[in-house]
Amino acid sequence: MQINGIPYRTIWLHPAQPNCVQIIDQRWLPHKLVIEDLNTLEDIATAIRDMHVRGAPLIGSAAAYGMYLALVNADRQSDWKNLLDNSAMTLMATRPTAVNLAFGIDKVMAVTGHLSEKEDLVKAALKAANQITEESVAHCYSIGTHGFVLIKDILRKKPKDNQTINILTHCNAGWLACIDYGTATSPIYLAHEQGVDVHVWVDETRPRNQGARITAYELLQHGIPHTIITDNTGGHLMQHGLVDMIIVGTDRTTRTGDVANKIGTYLKALAAYDNGVPFYVAAPSSSIDWNIRDGVAEIAIEERNAEEVKMIQGWDGKEIKQVLLTPQDSPAINYAFDVTPARLISGLITERGICEANELDLTAMFPEFRE
Amino acid sequence: MQINGIPYRTIWLHPAQPNCVQIIDQRWLPHKLVIEDLNTLEDIATAIRDMHVRGAPLIGSAAAYGMYLALVNADRQSDWKNLLDNSAMTLMATRPTAVNLAFGIDKVMAVTGHLSEKEDLVKAALKAANQITEESVAHCYSIGTHGFVLIKDILRKKPKDNQTINILTHCNAGWLACIDYGTATSPIYLAHEQGVDVHVWVDETRPRNQGARITAYELLQHGIPHTIITDNTGGHLMQHGLVDMIIVGTDRTTRTGDVANKIGTYLKALAAYDNGVPFYVAAPSSSIDWNIRDGVAEIAIEERNAEEVKMIQGWDGKEIKQVLLTPQDSPAINYAFDVTPARLISGLITERGICEANELDLTAMFPEFRE
Do A194 and A296 belong to one domain? Predict the structure, then answer.
């Protein structure tokens, strides 16, 4: 999608140096557009852990490129099995909740495990990383086309004198969380392109404000009408008929349709349910963990540094500053995700189509994962 | 309650200058303790509008002292009816949602309307303002004793090896929102004083962060264990059994038990209901608007400046700084309150005792308001 009128992706190989991966370092958005060079596995691990890149699909691609860089930089005489295992472990430790991490790593492991020559390993890993990346773009686009059908359905039922579709989203499941188009935002971009009057309520999404910083930035850059709200506001808007639908992303989806997504998603789902507002999750199949059934009981929720709650970063007019929001001596805790039970979800928008959030419907759409 | 070991109230007459009202200017908490002198009606109006003072009971007292200052500063030959009406209008315009504003003003109007001599008017107004203030302290204390019974009930049902009571609160309905003790915090202070092991989950409460700034500050100063969380976090905690009860305040309560409180309260009530967590509202009768029945339809929700969402204030290590959180050109909207329907509320803790959130129970406790 576009930034300052120029089309970008979130991750790409350096055009002149194939051993370098480039990313948009998202920590400085929306105040600065910083492109970062990543040359090693450790660079990639840091970029994922410290959220230079974030968003489930983007993390998956970054991890795959991380495996590639580990191989590129390895000695020809390496113990390849050992190296691959260690690289995978390093990457897996960066963000415990996102299933896409494992997805990206496993894809590289699957195509390299039987190889023994460095050239072959490097080539296979790069091919896999590129493939995951292109597949992710294609899946996002498909999610857009399926989600757009939902938007058109809602539009048909709206009065002729009020054809603005108000869509609320939480966190950033936009193109900056993916490679391009986004998951939750893909139907929005498509609707906008097709001339539908969409307006997005952007949850700021504390503590890291991915909504206020990143979703707002990408919508603004692409010309989509939007309004930033605090995370507390969605319930009030829904009570007053100001939200036509909610679309959020997912970091991990169970085979029963429970969804682990950014902390606070569950609260919005409760309000949507209470007010009869359709609540959809844009869930590419790469986010589905087919091994688990009970999201609340089984998904490990990442606890991040409490400083992310106590401090905040913003633009003081001259530079990016960190400020303290709380008494210095008050403790804080920082859970990064929560789990929205399937019963509150109107449907999952996958790359293959829309299905209800339950095992029967999900495995009907993905029969290869039937037990 | 105590700050740096010294007992304070939030508003008081200057000990040496009876024509001056002093307050803690809460805009600088927790980073600085600033005492402000208010000498005129306009000073009071500004202090309420710009939230030097905030919290429903404190606003009620401040408004009454505002009426007093208007009279103190008036010419002896004033048209008193006109002056009182204009002063009331100025004060009423400052914060549209809080019913306590009207409560404080009406009390002064009731005792001054029939008077015509400046001395008598000033004396009556001051007496009324002092009375509202002392009554508020007494009501807060009573709410504490009634709420403490609930805490003891929960304690009895907890396993003997886990006797920590985890109470979640939203915004600041603490002593800094009142005159002393607080409403929602009063049972907590009392339980702590009685040796109960209480721990408070403090919602930061965006956009103005009254939780992270003020509730955390007062709990820290008084030695109550607490942890600051983002507003997104409560649902997750409740899903995992980490919240024993919720107590919040109210800015306006309908005679049917609907509660207008800080934006986001409704979302916490939904999560409490979904997880079987008791959800109580500390509701002094001064917060009850006996004229309305449908909170969502009838309570005007204050829309504040969008800059409060886009900017945030914090401590940069040397001074208090404002920083921008969003793209400069993205719009934001700032609703200050939402309405929690009575059906989600376990009970109202009033100064007379605890009742269910419905008209029958509420008017049984306050029979003078039966129709």
Answer: yes
